[in-house]
Amino acid sequence: MKKSIYIISMFFLVLGACSDDYLDTEPNGQSTSDQFWRNGDDAVAAANALYEPMMSEEFYGHSEQTFEICSDDFWRAGDHGEDQAIEDFTFDASNAQLRHSYRFKYEIVNRAHAILINVPDIEMDQALKDRVLGEAYFMRGFARWRQHVIYGALPIVSEENYINNEFNQPKPTVAEFQAAIEADWLMAADLLPDSYSGADLGRPTSGTANGFLAKLYLYMDDLDRAITAGESVINGPYGLAPGFGDSFTIATENNPEVLFAVQSLDNWTTQDYMIYTTPRPWGGWDFHEPIQDLVDEFEVGDPRLDASIFQPGDIINIGGDEGDVEYAADFSQTGYHFRKFASWRETGGLNGDQNIPILRSADVYLLVAEAKIRRDGPGAGDAELNAVRTRSLGDGAAITGADMTALIHERRVELAGENQRFADLKRWHRAGIIDLVEHFQIDRGQFKPSRNFVVPRHYYFAIPQREIDLSNGILEQNEGY
Amino acid sequence: MKFKMKDIGLKMAVIMLFFFIVPFSKGHAVTISFENVLEIQDRIITGQVTDENGQPLPGATVQIKGGNTGTTTDFDGYYTIEVSNDETVLVFSYIGYEMKEMPIEGQVSINVQLEPSATQLEDVVVVGYGTQEKTKVTGSVASVSGESLQNIPVPGASQALQGRASGVNVVRNGGAPGQEGQIRVRGMGTVNNASPLVVIDGVPAGSIDDINPNDIASIEVLKDASTSAIYGLRAANGVVLVTTKKGRKNQKLTVSLNVYAGFSSAIKLVDVLEAPDLAMLKNERYTNDGIEGNEIWNNPYYAVQRTNWQDELLGSGSTNNVDFTVTGGSEKSAYSISGGYFNEEGMIKNSYYKRINFRINSDHELTDWLTFGENMQLTRQSGNFLNTNSAQTGILWSAIRFNPALPVRNEDDSYSSTQVSTEFGDINNPIFSAETVDNEETRNRLLGNIYTEFDILKGLQFKANFAVDATLYDRDNFSIQVTDQIRQNDIADLTREYREQYSLLSEYYVTYQTNLADAHNLKFVGGYTTQAFETDWFSADIDGFSNEDSSQRVPDSGEILDDISGNKEKIRLASYFARLNYDYRGKYLLSAVFRRDGTSRFAKENRWGNFPAFSAGWRVSEESWFNSGVVDNMKLTGSWGRLGNQNVDPFQYLALINTSRRYSFGGEQVTGASLSRIPNVNIGWETAEMTDIGLELDMFEYKLTTKLGYFIKDTKDMLLAPASLYSLGSATIPDQNVGAVRNSGFEVELGYNDTFGDLKLNVSANASFIKNEVLDLGEAEFLQSQFYGRPNQEITRTFVGEPIGTFYGWRTDGLYQNTAEVANDPNITNDPRREAGSIQPGDVRFVDVTGDGVIDDNDRVVLGKPFPDVNYGLNVGIAYKDFDLNAFFLGEAGVDIFNADRMQGLDPTYPFNMYAETLDRWNGEGTSNSIPRMTTNRDNLNHRTSDLFMENGGFFRLKNITLGYSLPDQVVNAVGITQCRVYITGQNVFTITDYSGMDPEIGYTDGNLQKNVDYARYPQARTFTLGTIIKF
Question: Which of A104, A182, A388, B890 lies in disulfide reach of B873, CB 3.0 to 4.6 Å?
Answer without folding.
Answer: B890
